[in-house]
Amino acid sequence: xxxxxxLEAYDSQLREEGELAHAQSTRRRPPVWWARFGxxxxxTYRALGGLEGAALDALIEETVAHFRDETEVVTFEWKTRxxxxxxxxxxxxxxxxxxxxxxxxxMVGEAAALAVDVSVPAGVTLRRAGEGHDLLADVRRCxxxxxxxxxxxxxxxxxxxxHQIARDPAHxxxxxxxxxxxxxxxxxxxxxxxxxxxxxxxxxxxxxxxRRGLYRALTAARARSALALGVAxxxxxxxxxxxxxxxxxxxxxxxxxxxxxxTR
Length: 264
Hints:
By secondary structure, the protein is an alpha+beta fold.
């Protein structure tokens, strides 16, 4: 499939309902959805229906007022995409106090194209968290590795993530690479309910283990698992560091995404 077809699949399956599956509450304010996930909010939509100028400003102002006055969220994100209209949406959002975070590349690919054999260094093993080992201990070890790489554990509490995996293994997996009993790379596979997509999230590799094919191997392992779960497409929002790795693995850049964030 070419980039245009992959983008069409992304827009039709992953926006709106595809982003709201785990929301604690949602409210429709056409043409957008307001959603709450604990102390965080999200604004999602498939298209803004031609809104621009004063009408767009009114929607943004109403959105800020909703999260500020009607919820207790600490922050909310308005997730923009590079191919959306109007082209000056970012300027309108910043005018209402939202702050742009770094742009990321939206990558999409067919799972079958990514399910390839990738060699790893001798002594390295790949497996799902909890496979032959204690699930919670595996998740904690992966979170500690990710914190060593990024200075944070990816925004998911280890106990909560382990509980989610145990409760719903058909929709959430954590994969890891080990060397001498140490987690050196890891990443999640998150199957999106009601779609043919799964997301590749939380990928991290210790600096001394980079450029050895570990992340590509974990991507391929997750692709094979996704196929077994009936998934057709994989997607990820990529930083400049992860984009070339996933592009070599077979994902295609289809658009960009820039989160605009309001904080109380």
